[in-house]
Amino acid sequence: MSEGKLYAVKNDEGKYLTIERRAPWWDSQVGTAVRSSAVALAWTEKHGGHVVTFVEEPEKVVLTKEQAEIVEKARVSDISATYISARTDEYNGEESLLMEAFVNGYTVANEKKYNVKVPYAEGWHFQKYSSASKLGPRNDWKPFPAKDIDSNMSKELFQFTETEIEHYGLQDCEKEEVTDDGK
């Protein structure tokens, strides 16, 4: 018996064996599945057919955007495992995690976002860049204090990821996690 596996009996016509107290029968849509390969094998000896194994789909691992980029680039690399290994730290388990994601699939975690309070200024939060600018977001702009989170301004201007908080040196500021509803 193996965790995550089920066994059934199938004949050459593609029908599955259904076992009930009254009588066994063959059905193309359904069959009886068991956790023991030995039981399924005993059924084949008595009723014919062959054992088929159903394996549960492994759970997808959760990756950051950066980790997902490594896995996707590894898919087009000539030596995928080497690509992943060269870009991860094997000692913290990241290499194994990315190898598992490569084989079994993955999902990308939504990064938590925070409103960051300006120290000693009640009702003030840091904003990423000026909403008055028509140029859009730029990496060289610094966050600046803004009075309250104005309803006329995009709420995203006030939302920082952990990476951005560290990048801008705002780690010592109080932060409020932003929930899915934007509050």
Task: Give the gist of this structure.
This protein is of the alpha+beta class and 183 residues long. It contains five helices and eleven strands.
Write up what this structure looks like:
The chain is an alpha+beta fold and 183 residues long. 25% of the residues lie in helices and 23% in strands. The chain has a 3-stranded antiparallel beta sheet. β2 and β3 form a beta hairpin. α2 crosses α4 (94-104). The mean pLDDT is 82.
Mind summarizing the main beta sheet?
3 strands, antiparallel
Percentage of residues in strands: 15-25%
Structural class: alpha+beta
Quickly count the helices.
Answer: 5
Strands side by side in the biggest sheet: 10-7-11
> How many β-strand runs?
11
Describe the protein's topology:
Elements lengths: L4 E6 L5 E3 L6 E3 L9 H11 L2 E6 L5 E3 L1 H11 L4 H7 L7 H11 L1 E3 L4 E4 L7 E4 L16 E4 L11 E3 H6 L7 E4 L5
Parallel strand pairs: 5-6
Antiparallel strand pairs: 1-4, 2-3, 7-10, 7-11, 8-9
Helix pairs in contact: 2-3, 2-4
